Amino acid sequence: MLIQKNVSLKPYNSFGIDVSASHFVELTHEWELEELTADETVPTTRLVLGGGSNILFTKNVAALVIKNNMMGIEVAEENEEHVWLQAKAGVVWHELVLYAIDHNLGGIENLALIPGCVGASPMQNIGAYGMEVKDVIDEVACWHWEEKRMMVLRNEDCQFGYRDSIFKQGLKDKVLITSVVFKLNKLHKVNTSYGAIQQQLATMGVSNEPTIKTVANAVIAIRESKLPDPNKIGNAGSFFKNPTISLELFKAIQLHQPNIPAYPANEGVKVPAGWLIEQCGWKGYRDGDAGVHALQALVLVNYGNATGAEMLHLSEKIIESVKEKFGIELEREVNIW
Ligand code: EPU
Hints:
Blueprint: E1 4-8, E2 20-27, H1 32-38, E3 46-49, E4 55-56, E5 61-68, E6 73-78, E7 82-88, H2 93-102, H3 120-123, E8 127-128, E9 131-132, E10 137-144, E11 149-154, E12 175-185, H4 195-203, H5 212-226, E13 234-238, E14 244-245, H6 247-256, E15 263-264, E16 269-270, H7 273-279, E17 286-287, E18 290-292, E19 299-302, H8 308-326, E20 335-336
Parallel strand pairs: 2-5, 3-5, 4-20
Antiparallel strand pairs: 1-2, 6-7, 7-12, 8-9, 10-11, 10-12, 13-19, 14-16, 15-16, 17-18, 18-19
Helix pairs in contact: 4-5
The protein binds uridine-diphosphate-2(N-acetylglucosaminyl) butyric acid (EPU).
The site of uridine-diphosphate-2(N-acetylglucosaminyl) butyric acid has 18 residues, from strand 13 and helix 7.
């Protein structure tokens, strides 16, 4: 375990922002955690990075940055209907999706190509195209920094919500996720409820019951057509959450904008932030190297050398204009440091 000082984080965040970490360590085994916790020479303020695909750095990080590189996928348990797959936190999320498809295990195919690592998947309850990871997470193992011990949270303990969990709330900064167990289906039923998947399957000429592999391929095609590849253009996926608004406000907006898309929500109506941002004229906007993706207004992009402060400033201007035009306050989905 090598603790380095003043390390550039540019390769470790998908926005490609160049800030430095005062302390940096890569972990490959769970047993290193005890040693790291006991080390009194490193800061106790910590930042755990998986794929670094949901963070915007706006300043240098005076903390211990931990790159979680714990690897491995194995079958923890199996019966006639299910396989419980245990994946270490450092496994690249899409590699896990491909593994599941190769082994004909259903449940995460709609989540193909989401950037990031397994360890971050429960953190923000990743979701796309009609599926959320909470529906297949069985348990999450993590290291508790203060209690200096491993703990296991069952699905029902994780307080999963829309892009939310206990790891962003009560256990924020208190634990490091080491592995996740996913309960996947041998006898699967694909979920093609999302309109964009149905359109894509039709374009691909798939008419009868598609396989999980076909659904994953449809999702990959949709994502590749709309979302920028972080290896080519810096971004962190959706920058904002889709807001839930009251039915009254929705109806008031609908009077002027009859085409506003909407989805049912627990209390009120969920509207796509991308649509609201596009209506305010931001789609394709660019100021220097900071911009709004031309094909999906929910995604902010760094064309090269934008600073975190520039990206943050752009997001503030967007929040203001959406508030002014629609009376809706957008909330950021990306973590800001
Ligand atoms: N829309 C616009 N203009 C835009 C973008 C979207 O009018 O610039 C409209 C679309 O036409 C569509 C609706 O908004 O009617 C929804 O768009 P889309 O299907 O692209 O999904 P989204 O609501 O913008 C959410 C997730 C994505 C996920 C997709 C697909 C959030 C914050 N984002 O986006 O997740 O891939 O659904 O399920 O919930 C992420 O979290 O990083 C992410 C990419």
